Amino acid sequence: MAFKYLQLAAQLQAEIARGTFPDKLPTEQELTQIYSVSRQTVRQALDKLVELGLIEKRQGSGSRVLDRGRSGGSDRIAVVTSYLNDYIFPTVLQDIQAVLSRKNYSTLLYSTQNKVSNERDILQGLLHQPVGGLIVEGSKTALPNPNLDLYEKLDLAGIPVVFIHGSYGALPGAVCVSDDNFGGGYQLARHLIARGHTKIAGIFKSDDIQGHQRYLGYLAAMRDAGLPLPDDRVLWYTTEERRYLLDYGHNDLLKHFTQFYLKDCTAVICYNDEIADRLIRMLLSTGHKIPADTAVVSFDNSYYSDLCPVRITSLAHEAHRLGGMAAELLLERMAGRQVQSQSITWRLVRKESG
């Protein structure tokens, strides 16, 4: 996996911040066993920690944790994301680092796995390992969050935060850079309606705010077109259900959707390309023709959209915009200037699926 070493580097950073390794890291061989990764992945992760100034590698004596790993840090920016190996994040990270490196900032990477418990551990660590600023992809942003007290402490400590993709409703003053997800849902539904579809189903993620915004845009387009609102044609799924579907290959969720939700619908809007890809493969396996029987459209225009047996019509992100903009806004906040949240428009890329 292309960015697996970044995942390991983020895990080791979190352990250093918590004081798990107060003086030295385990040996390379021990790390391969603890984290079930290759020796090459361990070496790349350790090189990343050296680059960040968190450890020092000495021939024959292993990797020593530097004091800087636990204190100081005004020249470092923490980047907290849900998944370091997510198909979107590597590009976002590269764009963030490109902006920050020009200003001589290094980046500390953390992954929450979209769990509020992991988010809490990371934020607590950052309060004891101060950084100059923080870029955060919040965990389960559509749900009540128990970590707002820590965001308040970060604010009191003078550590500015910029959210990406979505922020928490209970932090009304939060600065966020996100895609126009309402507009995207509206655009996809209007595209399908213009192609003659009047019964359109949907699959959306329930615990992240992006899913709610995309769903609302889709419903608004149906309403504005004078079409019935398809309450019983929308399937919601959670982070945990995503893991069972995509990581473990359990297709019960999509089987349930095709049996009970799809019914007489001729089109589906999916939360993203990875869900659309799995749905299309399942429909094809049951004899459906795409798009003749069922049109499928989605968000992200990722490599999934081209590797799918029927290439997916999907909304594209504006190249190199979100990560770079988030980094620029954070630098402005760190300089004491007022900034506002930003929303980025989508571009429809028409392919064969609908």
TrEMBL record:
Q: Which UniProt keywords apply?
A: DNA-binding, Transcription, Transcription regulation
All copies of domain HTH gntR-type, residue ranges: 2-68
User: CDD domains under this entry?
Assistant: PBP1_AraR (cd01541), WHTH_GntR (cd07377)
Name of the protein in question: GntR family transcriptional regulator
User: InterPro entries from the entry?
Assistant: AraR_ligand_bind_dom, LacI/GalR-like_sensor, Peripla_BP_I, Tscrpt_reg_HTH_GntR, WH-like_DNA-bd_sf, WH_DNA-bd_sf
Record SUPFAM superfamilies: Periplasmic binding protein-like I, Winged helix' DNA-binding domain
